[in-house]
Amino acid sequence: MRRKNLTLGIFGFGCVGQGLYEVLSRTNGLKVSIKKICIKDANKERSLAPLFFTTNKNDILYDPDIDVVVELINDDTAAFDIVKTAMQNGKAVVSASKKMIAGHLYELYELQQQYKVPFLYEGACCASIPIIRNLEEYYDNDLLHSIEGIVNGSTNYILTKIFDENKNFSAALSEAQELGFAETDPAMDIEGHDPKFKLCILLLHAFGIFVKPEHIFNFGIERLNDFDINYAREKHATIKLIATCRKIGDEVYAYVFPQLVNGDSQLTGIHNEYNGVIVESAFSDKQFFVGKGAGSTPTGSAVLSDISALSYGYRYEYRKIGQSILSREENHPLRLTQHVALKVYARYGNETEIDLGDFDEVHEKYESGETRFVVGTIPLEKLKASAWVNGKNINLIGVS
């Protein structure tokens, strides 16, 4: 197929936008030009000439010369409006806004079908790892069993500094923010929301099911303390924030929370801002993907890859949606379930009570001074529904 020349209109010129401009300016062979970049603050000093910038979104959305709209802003409501309007106007769209995409997955899928335009978003998951493209193309007919991995570079950087360099949580977080791996408001990362949004996207491309973010249990690393760190070290393990989804029969379960990993796991060696994803399938067994999962140019390179794919007319085919129907006569698709038992370490203080009746089995129990913990097996549905899990002195870590 002959490669198309593309004219871009870009929304946002922050960390990812500048990363895209850098990798685009150093790329040969891709015939792409930037016509306009829409920004909020016209008075902010920029690295490009003022003629590139506009504060009027319609200068991009309704410009007939612009082929591709690239959406790279933090406001998910505004981002959805931009993407929707661009597709309605017949423009291809590239986005890296995982929260917006996860929250509107079905609507975005419907818009693509209705207006016959491609919408690509590799930059929304794992930055430099082309995990969506692999799920779409390499695994299009493979019987996938599971995906698990470190899909958030910010928290992995923080945990690496804590375990490898003995830094405290706040110092490690500050360093991640200074390097551009974590936002000024880090809640999205450290509370586990960011990997949950990515997991919603991966569930669609891996198993063909649409899952709302609120239906996935997530627990972050913001409550991690020295006691938890010492517990992990006593077990000759480290802690990683891991996103997991697995298919069993006609059901898929999914969750995000910190887990103990040791030398037997390939994820043990994933350090700093890197991501690592393990894909397990019936035909190809296990495959391991590693790459930088945070930062300006790694994410910019993923966005550039989507733009390059558009120049060849590429679009997602979403083949797994059709394959998720196990019996077309019964119209019985795969569905999300919470019916899975997890082994967890739950640490809590003297002033906090957890309901041990929620656990199917308690394997270990400890009380000393102001700290107590229990290691036990608990159904995911009870963990997600419990009131005690949201207590400020509660911390959870998965135990294999």
Question: Secondary structure elements and their pairing?
Answer:
Blueprint: E1 6-11, H1 15-25, E2 32-38, E3 53-54, H2 58-61, E4 68-71, H3 76-88, E5 92-95, H4 98-103, H5 105-115, E6 119-120, H6 131-137, E7 144-150, H7 153-165, H8 169-178, H9 187-190, H10 193-207, E8 217-218, H11 226-234, E9 238-248, E10 251-261, E11 274-281, E12 285-292, H12 296-310, H13 319-323, E13 325-327, E14 332-333, E15 335-336, E16 341-349, E17 361-368, E18 371-379, H14 380-385, E19 395-398
Parallel strand pairs: 1-2, 1-4, 2-3, 4-5, 5-6, 8-10, 10-15
Antiparallel strand pairs: 7-9, 7-11, 9-10, 11-12, 13-14, 16-18, 16-19, 17-18
Helix pairs in contact: 1-12, 3-5, 6-10, 7-8
Mean pLDDT: 94
Q: Tally the helices: what do you get?
A: 14
Principal-axes shape call:
globular
> CATH top level of the largest domain?
Alpha Beta
Descriptive report:
- This protein has about 400 residues and is of the alpha/beta class.
- It has two domains: about 5-130 and about 295-320, NAD(P)-binding Rossmann-like Domain (Rossmann fold, 3-Layer(aba) Sandwich); about 140-290 and about 335-400, Dihydrodipicolinate Reductase, domain 2 (2-Layer Sandwich), CATH 3.30.360.10.
- The chain has 14 helices and 19 strands.
- Strand 1 (about 5-10), helix 1 (about 15-25) and strand 2 form a beta-alpha-beta unit.
- The N and C termini lie far apart (about 50 Å).
Task: Kindly summarize this structure in a few lines.
By secondary structure, the protein is an alpha/beta fold. It contains 14 helices and 19 strands. It folds into 2 domains: 6-132 and 296-321, NAD(P)-binding Rossmann-like Domain (Rossmann fold); 140-292 and 333-398, Dihydrodipicolinate Reductase, domain 2.
